[in-house]
Amino acid sequence: MRKQDKSSWIKFTGLTKCNHCGNDVYMKKVACYDQIKHYDLFEIGSDISWQEGPVWRLLLCPACSDVTLYKYVLDDRFEPDAWTNQTLYPSKDGAIIGLPSEIDKEYRATTNLTTLNR
Length: 118
Ligand SMILES: [Zn+2]
Known about the structure:
Elements: E1 12-17, E2 24-34, E3 37-40, E4 49-60, E5 67-75, E6 85-89, H1 101-110
Antiparallel strand pairs: 1-2, 2-4, 3-4, 4-5, 5-6
The protein binds zinc ion.
Zinc ion binds next to loops.
């Protein structure tokens, strides 16, 4: 856990919609993993430096006790509102993001996802 990142010390998220039960809840942060790297332009005489990289969070819904896997790409040159983020599990249509298309097709077929939201 990163000591300079105060937000990771907070054990709960702000109000977040649970894609399992649909409730707006304060999710418990059960795990956090990041690949944040430090960048700078010191070599070319600039004092500019920044941190950038993906962060994965595993969250637990207190209402239904199911987990949500959430990913965002931290870039401290921008406000958090501008960072890209997505819920990997469960996604809005129940699909698993990032599956190779062949496996995704099988997954959708066996779970009848093609009939949902299409
Ligand atoms: Zn829930």
